[in-house]
Amino acid sequence: MKPTLLILAAGMGSRYGGLKQIDPLGPNGETIIEYSIYDAIEAGFGKVVFVIREEFAAEFKKRFEGLVGDRIELAYAYQAVDTPVEGVKDLPAREKPWGTMHAVIVAEHLINEPFAVINADDYYGKDGFHQVADFLRNRCTPDTYAMVGYVLRNTLSLNGHVSRGVCKADNKGDLAAVNERTKIHWEGDRVVYHEGDNAFEVDPGSVVSMNFWGFHPNVFRTGREQFVRFVQENRENPKAEFFIPLVADNLIHEGKARFNILTSQDRWYGVTYREDRPEVVEAFQRLVDEGKYPSPLWQ
Q: What ranges make up the beta strands (E) of the chain?
């Protein structure tokens, strides 16, 4: 059975200023999502599931059905602040959705096979897709998952600071912890992060999480169980978010799952800031010039 790719695309991109998930960045107006889908097809994925806001469904379908609908199966799940989850009777009112793991579990009804999760607005490169596809086909089990890690220096923006989950491995090379570091940026030839008013150096060769995961569908059940507890504990906290690394950390420390670390040497590109856009446009043109992608992408 071919694995599925779950693309998280329900965010608005407040720092970017607009619906960056469908911003044309390639030489012929291609979006970042299209390059991810292209790489997923090449790596042997059989279905793409988008998690989007329902009000953008028509726009997404118009964009992607005609481009790739005859190349790979497409499906859509919708995430809102009040999207119900089994086991939670009444979600407290809030303005923002509940986070990336909530986005994963709202797609449960569409996925019955091992699957990968990515962000819609991140370019991950071919290597990560091939590594995770091989993992999902051959090594994924109900308690063995994967995280595709990237080298920190390959993920930094020149236009502002970023947050990254710096990974720590155990003595078997599996993921032991993801330590969130904020306000990471280049300071001369050093990379530093900030905690309050203090700055600390971090190894630019560190492996970081870019929200690229490989899961067995068993994770839906454990994710739902954790979400029930999370809502109970955060009813009075409207800014609490149920992130994938939180679930991963809980599963690791409870001994319920292990996460293989699949390290990609590819350069990550993203459009965290509007100022990142020219660099990403230039990068896609360079990848085309190097022969890594056709132009136009869908020929």
A: 4-8, 47-52, 73-78, 115-119, 122-123, 144-151, 162-169, 175-187, 190-195, 198-201, 207-215, 258-264, 269-270
